[in-house]
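Moderator note: this is an archived Q&A kept for reference. The question asked for a predicted structure of one protein chain; the sequence and the answer are reproduced below.
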Amino acid sequence: MPHPARRQRPLLRHSLTLCAALLLTSACAQRGNLDDPAYGGFFNGIENISDGTYDARIATREERVAALQQRQQRLLAERNSLSRQVSAHENALARLQQDIIVSKIRIGEQNIAPQTQARISAALAPPPSGQTDAERLANLQKTIADTRKLAETLAQLAG
C-alpha cells in the first residue's frame, strides 16, 4: 500500500501548478480601462495594438490637442485685438482730455459753471479700469462718449 505522504505529493504539485497559473493570469489581468495601456494588461495590450485601439486613442487625443491649440490661437488673437482697441481708445481719450484743457483755458475757469467744472474734473480723472480687457474697453468707450459730449459743450462755450 502506498505511503499516505506520497499520495499528497501529486495533490501538492497540482495545487502549486494551479497557484502558479493563477498568479500568471492575474499578472496579466485587467484593471480599469482596457483601452488604457497602463491598465489593460498584457493580453489586452496585444489586442489593442493589433486592432488599432491604441492608434484610435492617440488620434482622438491629437484631435483634441489640435482643437485646443486652435482655440488658444483664437483667444490670443482676440486678446491682441482687444489690447489694440484699448490702446486706441486710450489715445482718443487723451486727445479729448487735451481738447478739454485747451477749451477750459480759452473760456477761463471763472466763466465755467460749477456743474460743468465737476464734469471737467471727472473727464480729466484717470478712466475706470476693468478686470479684463473687454471691461476696460467698455469703460473707456463710456468715458470717451461722456468726454466727447463735454468737449463739444466746452467748444460751444469757447465760441
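Archived answer notes: Residues 34 and 40 are 4 Å apart (CA to CA).
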